[in-house]
Amino acid sequence: MSLFDDYPPAAFYFTVALSGSLVADMAFSEVSGIATEIELEPLTEGGENRFIHQLPKAVKHGNLELKRGIASMLSPLVLWCKDTLEGEFASMITLQTVMVMLRGGHGEVLRAWQFNDSYPVKWSVDGFSSTKNEVAIEKISLAYSYSQRVL
């Protein structure tokens, strides 16, 4: 097997794991927001008008966005979202590790990203329309402290 056998990998076969264990209801139609960016601070140098220095300030992350058909109330992810977003801060927010794994044609993990100290910050449902024949979709946004590509 060559390093380039699965290059470039297809983006349609992926799984999401919550706290290191695969859960049956963790199938998503779309995952987005896998990004890390260095925030820059502009610095102008006195007497130098040709350019502005860009100094690294901090590493920032967007939110991880998950989309899927509306799941059962027994789903561990739904329960986590419900406790966090509907709990009115009556108890501490439970942080979890979320893994996103891009898989090959035989189910093998080709690439993987780990999102540490994740928690739900938004849970929404797409609009309903009597003129469309589509699956009802829920969207979940997760904030996290930091991420790392592990494969």
Labels describing this entry:
151 residues; mainly beta; 7-stranded antiparallel β-sheet; 1 helix
Descriptive report:
By secondary structure, this protein is mainly β. It has one domain (14-34, 63-149). Helix content is 7%, strand content 44%. The protein contains one helix and nine strands. The protein has one helix spanning 76-85, and strands spanning 14-18, 30-32, 36-43, 53-61, 64-69, 96-103, 109-125, 137-143, 146-149. Strand 6 (96-103) and strand 7 (109-125) form a beta hairpin. This is Phage tail protein. It comes from Duganella rivi. One of its GO terms (molecular function) is structural molecule activity.
Helix count from the secondary structure assignment: 1
Helix-strand string: EEEEEHEEEE
Query: What's the number of extended β-strand segments?
Result: 9
Task: Categorize the overall geometry.
Answer: globular
Protein name: Phage tail protein
Pfam family, one: Phage_T4_gp19
GO molecular function: structural molecule activity
In terms of topology, how is this protein built?
Blueprint: E1 14-18, E2 30-32, E3 36-43, E4 53-61, E5 64-69, H1 76-85, E6 96-103, E7 109-125, E8 137-143, E9 146-149
Antiparallel strand pairs: 1-6, 2-5, 3-4, 5-8, 6-7, 7-8, 7-9
Summarize the structure.
The protein is 7% helix and 44% strand.
